[in-house]
Write a structure and sequence with these properties.
The protein is mainly α and about 110 residues long. The protein has five helices and two strands; from the N terminus they run H-E-E-H-H-H-H. It has one domain. Helices cover about 75% and strands about 5% of the residues. The chain has a two-stranded antiparallel ribbon with strand order 1-2. Helix 2 packs across helix 3.
C-alpha cells in the first residue's frame, strides 16, 4: 500500500497544499483574498472609529475639567479682589447671553 501522501498527491490539483491532517486544501483565489482584505479593512475601520470616539470623549472630559479648574481659580480670585470681581461681572454680562446660563450664574452677575 502506498504512503498516504502519494495517494493524496495524485488527487491534488496544481496549487493545492496539504494540511496537518493530510487532507488537501485549495489555495485561496484572488476573489477570496480580496474578500478577506475587505473584511480586514472593515474591522480596522471599526477599530479606528472606536479609538477616535474614545479619544474625543477623553478630550471633552479633559476640557470640562480644565474649565472647572480655571473657573474655580477665577472665582476665588474675584472673592479676594473686588476690582477683579467687578471686571468679571462686566465680562460675564456681555459674554453670557443664554437665559439658562445667565440664571445659573445669576449670583455672580449681581
Amino acid at each position: 500500500m502506498p504512503p498516504a501522501g502519494i495517494f493524496f498527491a495524485d488527487m491534488m490539483k496544481a496549487g493545492d497544499t496539504m494540511t496537518t491532517d493530510s487532507t488537501p486544501t485549495t489555495k485561496p483565489t484572488k476573489t477570496d483574498k480580496l474578500a478577506a482584505l475587505k473584511q480586514k479593512e472593515q474591522q480596522l475601520k471599526a477599530k479606528i472609529a472606536a479609538l477616535e470616539a474614545r479619544q474625543k470623549t477623553a478630550d471633552r472630559k479633559k476640557d470640562a475639567r480644565r474649565k472647572i479648574v480655571v473657573g474655580g481659580a477665577v472665582l476665588a480670585h474675584a472673592a479676594l479682589h473686588p476690582a477683579f470681581a467687578d471686571e468679571l461681572k462686566a465680562i460675564l454680562k456681555v459674554a453670557v447671553t443664554r437665559d439658562s446660563d445667565r440664571e445659573t450664574i445669576g449670583d455672580i452677575l449681581e
